[in-house]
Amino acid sequence: MTAFVRDADNIRLGVIGMTEGNGHPYSWSAILNGYDRTRMTAECPFPGIPGYLNLQPPEAFGIAGARVTHVFCDARSDAEHVAALSQIPHVAETPEALIGAVDAVLIATDIGGEHVRRARPFVEAGVPLFIDKPLCDTAADLAQFQRWVADGAAILSSSSTRYATEYAP
C-alpha cells in the first residue's frame, strides 16, 4: 500500500474554505490543534462551536502527530481569525499555496457545487483530501470524483448522519 503522508508522526494538514453558516474551519482546526478558549468563546462567529468545544477537557483535543498548519479562506480576514483562535501558524494567500506545504487538505465548505473546483488543484498535485458533505450535488460532479478515485486520487467524504439513531429504520 502506498503511504499517503511522508511522516506519519508529523502530519501537516491544511484547511480551506468558509461558507456562510458553516464554521467548520474553526471547529475542525480547534479539535485538531486545541484553541484559545477565551478568544474562541468571545469571538467565534458561530456560538455553537465554543458551546460544544468548551464542554470537553483540554486533553481531549488533538490527534497525536497531526496538526493543522495552514488555513485558506476566500476572505483573508476569515483565515486570519481562524488561525488566531485555532492555533494555526500559517495563513495561505491561495489554496494552491498549500501544495507542498501540507500532507493533506480538508475542504471545509458545505456547498457540493464548488467541491470539484476546490479539489482539482490538490487532486492534480496528488494531495490527499477530506471533503465536507455533501461531496457534490450533480451527477456530472460525482462522475468527476469517480474518475479521480479510479485514477488513484485519495479522496474521502463522510457524514455522521448514518450514525444518527433518529434515521434508523
DSSP strand content:
5-15%
**Low-confidence parts, pLDDT < 50 over ≥5 residues?**
none
In quaternary terms, these chains amount to single chain
User: Order of SSEs, N→C?
Assistant: EHHHEHEEHEHE
By CATH, the superfamily comes out as NAD(P)-binding Rossmann-like Domain
Structural class: alpha/beta
Query: In CATH, what is the class?
Result: Alpha Beta
Which helices and strands, and how do they pair?
Blueprint: E1 11-16, H1 24-33, H2 37-43, H3 48-53, E2 66-72, H4 76-85, E3 90-91, E4 104-107, H5 115-125, E5 129-131, H6 139-150, E6 155-157
Describe this entry's structure for a reader.
The protein is an alpha/beta fold and 169 residues long. It has one domain: NAD(P)-binding Rossmann-like Domain (Rossmann fold), CATH 3.40.50. Helices cover 33% and strands 15% of the residues. Strands 3-2-1-4-5-6 form a six-stranded parallel β-sheet, sandwiched between helices. α1 packs parallel to α4. The protein starts with 10 loop residues before the first strand and ends in a 12-residue tail after the last strand. The model has no long low-confidence stretch (mean pLDDT 95).
Task: Supply the key terms.
globular, 6-stranded parallel beta sheet, 169 residues, alpha/beta, Rossmann fold, 6 strands
Concise synopsis of the structure shown:
It is built from six helices and six strands.
